[in-house]
Amino acid sequence: MLTFPKGFLWGAAASAPQTEGHALGGGKTATTWDKWFELNPEKFNNNQGPEVTSNVYEFYKEDIQRMKEIGMNSYRTSISWARLLPDGKTLNKEAVTFYRSYFQTLRENGIEPIINLFHFDMPWWLMEKGGWETRESVEAFAFYAETAFVEFGDLVKRWATFNEPLVHIECGYLYGFHYPAIVDFKKAIQVGYHTLMAHVKAVEAFRQGHFEGEIGIILNVTPTYAKSNEDRDMEAKNKADLLIIKSFLDPCVLGEVSKDLVELLKDNELIPTTIETDKEIIKHNRVDYIGINYYQPMRVKAPETSQVPAQTPADFFASYDWPEKRINPYRGWEIYPEALYDVAMMMKNDYNNIPWFVSENGMGVADEERFLDEKGMVQDDYRVDFMKEHLGQLYKGIQEGSSCFGYHTWTFVDCWSWLNGYRNRYGFYRVDLDNNLNRSLKKSGLWYKELSQHNGF
Ligand code: BG6
């Protein structure tokens, strides 16, 4: 039996745009996702857009009972910026009522709400001004953050500023999966810098307002492994670490952007525009905790050819196909639970053993109706095995002193996933798209209940 520390968080994560539905209802204005779907619906799997998701906006009360049913003691979701402040300034009373009732109901049922502020959902009004490319976005986000602290601070004691900031940077400005889907390394770095400053300014607003509780950030940490110990491969790994691991972890936890990262950007003419006082603000506004989303490692090697100044990250490192890898064929992601132990050790040794939790981990599988038994329950043993293996590695890290305080899966009920629509399912509950979005428990939900009841397995 592996027993986890007392008070360990067992729960799941989701986001406003992926679950709420009613994307243009209840006073909400459009985000880049709503607009992109309107402009290019063909980009989205089966033409599935953000208007109909698991529609938590109307079903949250029933869903919270379902969370309770499977033993969840915590739940992370986000607030929609475009719902709370439809034009960036005016408070939407209907949104306040909705979120207050949502968070209050969670608390009344013994489920701690962990509330995040940005999950890839840039409001369209701000995108039209340049989104994260403009410095204006920093102040706009800090205003939104402060508004959320004021409106919900009595109900929320654990805040997060961003979910996976690297994703909207990379997918929007390097790899084409998020709007505006352009390829521009220099812009990507500027967008990254403004995102960092928006985070820091939100932390500053939280501290200056003396709000009760903790504030952190959720990062996708993809540990990197080099093809070999040869210098060229190790250099590629180090550059990947700077861009992918240290870029946010260093300033958020240690209060300083890595000097090596600054050098690398300088050498490649990628230094973003900054303001003199930013350094001080970064230094004085560190987080209380870190959330780490872990799905897959990153295998890297030296690129065959590269340009200076670099035009894309591929000039720094190339991906390496590890012949021994296990793969989740539906998502195309490597399954490597051992990395979670390495992450635990990294947090302990390189980041002052700051409190952290696994804020997402999970397995997306397509066509899960194949696994329905005669009673209508998805027999997702693969998901239980996936969790067991990852928790085994996490346990080892905790035994060796890493300050991990919880484990959240992605996700609670199957949810909508950006361009992938409803292709891959991750939930403890299946959502039936052909039958009024009905929810039905999967086998993994039963297992999770036991896990939480025993605080281990
Ligand atoms: C995380 C995101 O990267 O992974 C979620 O925070 C996302 O928004 C999840 O849905 C699973 O990835 P995907 O692309 O299969 O939905």
TrEMBL record:
InterPro entries: GH, Glyco_hydro_1. Keywords: Hydrolase. One of its GO terms (molecular function) is hydrolase activity. It holds the Pfam family Glyco_hydro_1. PANTHER family: 6-PHOSPHO-BETA-GLUCOSIDASE GMUD (PTHR10353:SF139), GLYCOSYL HYDROLASE (PTHR10353). Belongs to the glycosyl hydrolase 1 family. This is Glycoside hydrolase family 1 protein. The lineage of its organism: Bacteria, Bacillati, Bacillota, Bacilli, Lactobacillales.
